[in-house]
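Wed. Picked up where I left off yesterday with DMT family transporter. The coffee machine is broken again, so keeping this brief.
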Amino acid sequence: MTPTNPRPSVGMAFALATTASFAALDTLTQLLASSATVAMMLFARYLVQSLLHLATDLPQRGLSLFRARRPGLQVGRALALALTNLFAVMSLQHIPVGQFTAIVMLTPMAMTLVAALFWREQVPGLGWVLMASGFAGVLLVVRPGQGATLGWTLLLPLGTLAAGTVFQLLTARAAATDAPGTTNLWTAGIGTVLSGLAVLHGGWQPLSPGAWALLAGVALFNATGQVCLLQAYRHARAATVAPLLYTQLVFAALAGWWWLGQAPAALAWLGMALIAFSGIASGHLSRRA
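Structure written out below (tokens, as returned):
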């Protein structure tokens, strides 16, 4: 992706703001898990995101903003993101923020695996080694059998990873057919409708003023992260931005430690470093291919 207003240092700052915002989003989601329903949290995120896209894109493009060349693809992408968000919120009801983030950070490597197995794309030997090391990093973070994260709860972040991988692959297809504003609005709009229906059909419960504040924070940090990510790519090359996105591992671990008392073990820090190294090296390898 070519930056439209090249200022690398500004782009890097926005990339860090992106990861900090998403780490705060996940932490607030976990804090809110005992007060608000999953449907309410998803609706707040989608509604604010939809309003944001309408406010920024509709004045420039008018009704053409709503026209998609491949509506089926847009619906599929929206459903994939809806599943990703659903699994993410459910994961954060059971799993520490740092562990959840570590698993989800495998998404770029999972995309490489899917492309190799189903699209027959060539992956060099080093690429397979990096995927294996990334998986080893997750094992160091999660440490099956050594903590509270056991059994079926591990399926939730794995569901997030699987749905997120499908979402990213469909995003690549959608980018070739429709403008980003159209794609983002379709995704946010469909998510708003689906989560709104879930709220109306048993997904509502009264909240305390403190819980309402947390819910507003969830919507705010989600929107802030989306805006900052777009600004990061506007000011810096993808090769500059992508490695910085792994700082979400650090922000998530620190946020979980500070707000939730979830102090990562020494092996968890080592695992996060291994995931970040594997992801950055894998991205560099794919750009050279």
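Quick read: Residues 8-288 form one domain.
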